[in-house]
Design a protein that fits this description.
The complex is a heterodimer of chains A (348) and B (295). Chain A has 348 residues and is of the alpha+beta class. Chain A contains nine helices and 20 strands. Chain A has helices at 43-51, 73-76, 93-102, 112-125, 141-154, 171-188, 199-205, 223-228, 233-238; strands spanning 5-14, 17-27, 32-36, 58-63, 66-67, 78-81, 159-163, 191-196, 208-213, 216-221, 243-250, 253-256, 259-262, 271-277, 282-285, 291-302, 305-311, 319-322, 334-339, 343-346. In chain A, a hairpin with a 2-residue loop joins strand 12 (253-256) and strand 13 (259-262). Chain B has two domains: 14-54; 58-291, MetI-like (MetI-like fold). Chain B is built from 17 helices and no strands.
Chain lengths: 348, 295
């Protein structure tokens, strides 16, 4: 049922705007992949290309061994869930879900009885039993989302495509649906691609994350891969919060000004570089070697995390420091920070 | 502690809130009075006059006026013209609205302006254009005569003029509605495997049915009531090419006021039926209309 999706060097322009510039991606059967990127990065265009709602200028998309250019939209058998769900307002829930089956050519069309049974099964699957007669306007956002999913699943799609599936929902419903979708994917095993601009959502939900920027895929990998080993400065900055320090690499040490801040470097690229450090990788220490002196200027609380903003001489932006379980310093206090982990990129 | 402060915050009198949002009572009354006076003077009074004048000479005279052969012929002709012009404009209007709302193409702005053209051109001129094109002295006149085809001063001319004048109604109602709906529903239907015909009849048309209905109501009212353009191409041959509005004018010019108003009352009745139908539907299906995204 599920097929592998192979995307080969896709290029796509809109007017004078290059939306995709040579994108390739292999998706395994049954895999759950997130296309993550800021708006304008081309992620939705890529999703619509896989669906067949856009045509590529160059490159191709394969379902298994089949070139999708040879398939009509109907034969592609895509389950597409639109950002605003695009439920048919004039049809009730049962008619919405049954629409795909009713649209089949007469000889392939199931009987009305079979369609009714299938609709019931799907409503059970998306945990909305008994809502057949409701109209979309009578449903909550989360319910609409699940009806849209049931409608897409009804045609037994080879690939399930979701455009910002949680974009229109409030935070609480979002979290619930996220866990639910992960579990549903585990049960049904559809090859699934979803688009999101929310890095937390992508990292939590997907087997693999493809991060797009300006029409290119910058990195593909598991959540751990992309978060712990970002391939580019863009990914560092896009995934979670990060402090950026201009440094100079000499031998195995990185220097901020004339002060060594990070040692034990194996890279042998010397010269100017950017050091990216996440707030949780800065620790307040007593000893001096490899430490960065600074002044605490502000303290705040972000959910469970306490955060200090530390001004460092020679740095315009204050450093964000997670305090975790450490004793909070006072505002105005002079402290020393040790960098426990960082990502180094040669300055462009 | 925070609980204790809640009730007092929630106990703000609702009246003061509503007053804060609205204008002062004097302004309110004045605005309502002005609107009402205008409606009475310019809309209701003429309408009432039509019916009063129509009934001035009693029921028998009224009946005679609308059942004499020329009046009946005018009524039949008006219905026939509308029966052809309105469906035609429905089909072309839907096609034009669809093209404008769902596709990007060169010359789209030009097409939108062209759709408005009949509204911006005086109906008399639109009528004259057809005479110039198809009349005996017109560009196609000799050819038409050679082939024994009659357009001006005959039914085809009346239909052409009516189609031209009433074309914008359906398209103008549909375009903004279709544009606001976007294409997601159609795309969803296509990915679900629906054929283009099924997409149109099962998704697009039901989505815009109320706008379409309003458009058709307005189009029909104008098609039956059109005077200027039709007057030019008709030739006003009694019993043959006279529509109801033309018939009314002739009667009036011949000092048959009561008869003129009698036939006019039929047209006015049509307007009332249109209005009542529209109100009824809004009242009965208000929720569905709101849900389909039309105010």
């Amino acid at each position: 049922m599920s097929v592998a999706v192979t995307i080969e060097t896709i290029e796509k322009r809109f007017e004078n705007f290059p939306a995709l510039r040579g994108v390739s991606l292999d998706i395994q059967p049954g895999e759950l992949v997130a296309l993550l990127g800021p708006s304008g990065s081309g992620k939705t265009t890529l999703l619509r290309l896989i669906a067949g709602l856009e045509e590529a200028d160059r490159g191709r998309v394969l379902f298994g061994e089949t070139d999708t250019r040879e398939l009509s939209l109907r034969d592609r058998r895509i389950g597409f869930v639109f950002q605003q769900y695009a439920l048919f307002k004039t049809m009730n829930v049962a008619e919405n879900i049954g629409f795909g089956l009713k649209s089949r050519p007469r000889r392939e069309r199931p009987s009305n009885e079979d369609i009714r049974k299938r609709v019931g099964d799907l409503l059970d699957l998306v945990q909305l039993p008994g809502l057949e007669k409701r109209y979309p306007s009578q449903l909550s956002g989360g319910q609409r989302q699940r009806v849209a999913l049931a409608r897409a699943l009804a045609i037994e799609p080879r690939v399930l495509l979701l455009d910002e599936p949680f974009g229109a929902l409030d935070a609480k419903v979002r979290k619930d649906l996220r866990a639910w979708l992960r579990e549903l994917h585990g049960r049904t095993g559809h090859t699934t691609v979803f688009v999101t601009h929310d890095q937390e959502e992508a990292l939590e939900l997907a087997d693999r994350v493809a991060i797009l920027n300006e029409g290119r895929i910058e990195q593909v990998g598991s959540a751990d891969d992309v978060y712990d080993h970002p391939a580019t400065p863009f990914i560092c900055e896009f995934l979670g919060e990060v402090n950026k320090l201009p440094v100079k690499v000499v031998g195995s040490q990185a220097f901020f000004g004339d002060r060594p801040v990070l040692g034990g470097l194996s890279q042998n690229q010397g010269g100017p570089a950017s050091l990216y450090v996440r707030p949780q990788h800065l620790r307040i220490v007593d000893e001096t070697p490899l430490a960065l002196p600074g002044t605490v200027e502000h303290l705040r609380r972000n959910g469970p995390i306490r955060r200090a903003e530390v001004a460092v001489e020679g740095l315009k932006k204050r450093l964000e420091v997670d305090l975790a379980s450490q004793v909070a310093p006072a505002i105005g206090e002079r402290i020393r920070l040790r960098i426990t982990h960082g990502n180094l990129f040669a300055a462009a | 502690m925070s609980d204790a402060t809640l009730p007092s915050a929630a106990a703000t009198p609702p009246r003061s809130a509503s007053r804060a949002r609205s204008e002062s009572p004097v302004v309110q009354v004045a605005l309502i009075a002005i609107s009402l006076a205008f409606l009475l003077l310019f809309l209701l009074l003429p309408l009432v006059t039509v019916f009063v004048e129509a009934a001035a000479k009693g029921w028998e005279a009224y009946r005679a006026a609308i059942t004499e052969p020329d009046a009946l012929a005018a009524i039949r002709l008006t219905l026939l013209v509308a029966a052809i012009a309105v469906p035609f404009n429905i089909i072309v209007g839907i096609a034009a609205a669809w093209a404008i709302a769902k596709f990007e193409f060169r010359g789209k702005d030009l097409l939108i302006s062209l759709i408005d053209l009949p509204f911006s051109v005086s109906p008399v001129i639109s009528g004259l254009v057809f005479v110039l094109l198809f009349g005996a002295q017109g560009y196609f006149g000799p050819w038409l005569q050679a082939n024994d085809l009659k357009i001006v001063f005959a039914l085809p001319g009346l239909i052409l003029a009516t189609v031209f004048v009433t074309f914008p109604f359906v398209a103008r109602e549909l375009i903004p509605h279709m544009q606001s709906l976007g294409s997601a529903d159609e795309e969803a239907a296509l990915t679900l495997g629906a054929s283009p015909w099924r997409v149109f009849f099962a998704v697009t048309l039901p989505n815009v049915k109320w706008s379409l209905f309003y458009g058709v109501l307005l189009c029909n009212a104008r098609a039956m009531g059109e005077f200027g353009a039709v007057a030019v191409v008709s030739g006003k041959i009694r019993g043959l090419t006279n529509t109801m509005p033309l018939h009314i004018e002739i009667l009036y010019n011949e000092y048959m006021g009561a008869a003129a108003f009698a036939v006019a009352s039929l047209l006015a009745g049509l307007a009332l039926v249109t209005l009542v139908l529209k109100t009824l539907l809004e009242w009965r299906y208000g929720d569905a209309i709101a849900a389909s995204g039309r105010h």
